[in-house]
Amino acid sequence: MSLPHLHHSLALSHLLRRRASHPTVRFPFRGIPNISTSSASLADELSHRPSRSPARKRSVSVRCSLMSADQPPSSVPGSALPKDCLSYSRAYWVTKSLIAWNVDVEDASFHLFASKGANILITDQGIEGYDVKFPLEFDEKGLPENVTKKFPHIQNYKAFRVPSSLDVGSLLKCQLAILSSHVDGTCSNATGLQLPGIVDDLFAYSGPLGAVFGEDAISLYVWAPTAQMVRAFIYRDSSGEHLLQCLSLKEENGVWWGNGPRSWEGCYYTYEVSVYHSSTLQIETCTVNDPYARGLSSDGRRTLLVNLDCDKLKPTEWDMLADEKPKLLSFSDISIYELHIRDFSVSDHTVKPEFQGGYLAFTSKDSAGVRHLRELSAAGLTHVHLLPSFHFASVDDDKRKWKFVDGDRLATLPPDSEDQQAEVMAIKDEDGYNWGYDPVIWGVPKGSYASDPNGPCRILEFRKMVQALNRIGLRVVLDVVYNHLYASGPLGDHSVLDKLVPGYYLRKNTNGFIENSACTNNTASEHFMVERLILDDLLHWAVDYKVDGFRFDLMGHIMRSTMVKAKCALQTLSKDKNGTDGTKIYIYGEGWDFGEIAKNARGVNAAQFNLCGTGIGSFNDRMRDAVLGGSPFGPPLQQGFVTGLSLQPNEHIHGDKSVTDGMLAGAMDHIQVGLAGNLRDFVLTIHKGDAVKGSEVLTHDGSPVAYALSPSETVNYVSAHDNETLFDIVSLKTTMEISVDDRCRLNHLATSIVAFSQGIPFFHCGDEMLRSKSLDRDSYNSGDWFNRLDFSYESNNWGVGLPPREKNERTWPMIKPRLADPSFKPQKIHILAAVENFKNLLKIRYSSPLFRLRTANAIQERVRFHNSGISLEPGVIVMSIEDGHDGIPGMSQLDPIYSYIVVIFNACPTKVSFQLPTLRARKLQLHPLQLMSSDELVKNSLYESSTGCITIPCRTTTVFVEVRNSGYQ
């Protein structure tokens, strides 16, 4: 998911503040006696003292106000205190003994207030409704290093010491407020508190969580240190009111637990939690699922008590799958194919109807889609990356509720009609389609992809899917979305973590409102138990589902330390102990640096430039932008290396010829850095003639192009689920005058740059079939109609109507004439050629280890660029990779077949011919796979040994090889 793709049109629920009407009893601020601060007396006060008004659960009559996160509250008439100040949480309780607050301390005193019934009010007279009050002492030494390291965004806040005698654990179950007052006793400021720091300080926990199955009993453990009461409701069925048992849980150090008989296995449960919610300023009694759920009922209404070690939930020979895994010698050998589970089979009529769109489609050995994957695997592809397949919110698990468009009728409409998108959008939230980037519970497979969303069916079928993919030679990557959650607050079925421990799991701004830069409800991995949940979940998927890799959505919103711990934890897994070889698990993600975490504002985050040296991969958007032009957020028609920049301009005004020539040369520099693994220290000669490091090549905004220290830290791509497909973006950015044959060649040229780069190549499913989404730039909720795949190769889905208005209307004037022009639509012959070309790219990549060098030193030693410097030929990149010779001093020999490889990428609309003296006297020949291909144009590529002259056809990638013992010595 890229930065601007807000997948959900959600209201700003984090700003909605609901508060019930309060009694009119008033208490003057001055003169209220100070309650004893001893632990025993505090516990007694909070447990037994009558509230000044009854403890409040959810009230039907509430007053709602929509407030900006940065809007200053208005003052109460006749008082210095803002009337809504307790709706804000501007102070931080950071350790057992310290509270941080950005407030003026001159001539002021400070007190902490607590109310077990959440009755604190700010009135004209001051603060009312509290049970206890404690003095705080200003600490001139400020916040200690351990606090500012964990919370760098409050490093300049004032520090206030809490009395050491306080029973802090009891206080954390209350509504809390901190108030400053003048020397005359009048109030000057007040606010609520953010508690993650103190919660981590007191209640960080490493024991069991979730349902633990013993020989004779099932134990339930749930972490909820701020809760006042937790009960477990046990049900026999997935729905209905028949309650088997209500179990009151006991609390010990913030963990609530209870035991039940082993006969509960197969039953369902929910928790009832009574806890203070700062979002409503009330004690709320919430029904919530177990965040450590391993099974769910349909739509996650209840948690299933399921033992994942049960033999009935394992496919045949499941426990031996670790020994069947496709071989993987090095992360540099990885290639990744991004795939959506529903896309894969919902339109494949060779799949059984009951399997279409679900996990079991991957077990259909003779289907067109599986045959396609098997052929890609045979060509060298190693990993399938599955878009989110955990329990997400936006698709109903009950297929009977889904709505469908009339595909036969839509197919009769014009290719540029608005009608198709109108019908798709009319049911977009009631059909079976969504990408799934709206997590609810991370640790359970999504029920909509299973034959039956109730019971353990989804567990068995997910395992069958992994096993089936492994057996055709493909490892499985799970797309994980730990950076945000779909819902928050005490209301709604999809809120889980924020019901259990309000204000802890979600990252808040300095006013106490939830951050939403990662779409909505950003999580806070800098908090101990958030990080623990992420690590536990990763280990669960790796061990219980034998997943082979993880792709992190908006990884930059997660702390670097969390990612490093995740990598280390996974690598400790072993086949003997865990049934999983953790050393073969690869992790990568979107290392974008934006929002509240930008520039390490919340701690060192997992952004591109922070990950070097970790071995964790990050998407290389620099290569994407240089190849295609501009960025997904810039002018739609801005061109790049393969789309005609300076070589065949479109209607976009880029500047005069000198400007566009410079832009093209700069794009070629960026691509060359990417071809060399996007290595920070790789030295190359740029178009200005200087020899510089990759980190010294700069983007348009002055950022370094290169950020990696090893090739496995770079994931090279030009297309992904976000933004237009590769064929669509090529069709949009190239001039309308070129033929569909040329667009198909450019699609292949762009893919070849990824395929022949050092690092990890990443391909979006369907790019090898010229996949189109009818120019939709964000198809997350565009239904099957715009997301269709056709493994019969009859159609690429181009021209199925104008893409959905919401994300595309701005570009409809550019899109409409292209869709309406029948010459833009590829025919089956084009699709078949594209599939063959893609398989050849994979075969060539895996024909030599020189395309998959494992270290930065090896790349620096062996990779060279020849058409560079001030006299470069525009639009042509020439890369060589050299190998050593056994028995001859110098570099080691890696390839037993080829001693030298030259790859030429010609983006020009005409053939090019020029001399490269550095290639003179070699015995280069066209790669055998290109000699045997059906692409007649590439066979016209020529190399003349005596002069070093090369001739490359237009819009072609040519690979020359020097067979060992026949060439240069």
TrEMBL record:
Residues 208-293 form the Glycoside hydrolase family 13 N-terminal domain. One of its GO terms (biological process) is carbohydrate metabolic process. It comes from the Eukaryota. Residues 89-201 form the Pullulanase N2 domain. Residues 793-962 form the Alpha-1,6-glucosidases pullulanase-type C-terminal domain. Pfam families: CBM_48, Pullul_strch_C, Pullulanase_N2. InterPro entries: GH (IPR017853), Glyco_hydro_13_N (IPR004193), Glyco_hydro_b (IPR013780), Ig-like_fold (IPR013783), Ig_E-set (IPR014756), Pullul_strch (IPR011839), Pullul_strch_C (IPR024561), Pullulanase_N2 (IPR040671). One of its GO terms (molecular function) is pullulanase activity. Belongs to the glycosyl hydrolase 13 family. PANTHER family: GLYCOGEN DEBRANCHING ENZYME. This is Pullulanase 1, chloroplastic. It comes from Acorus calamus.
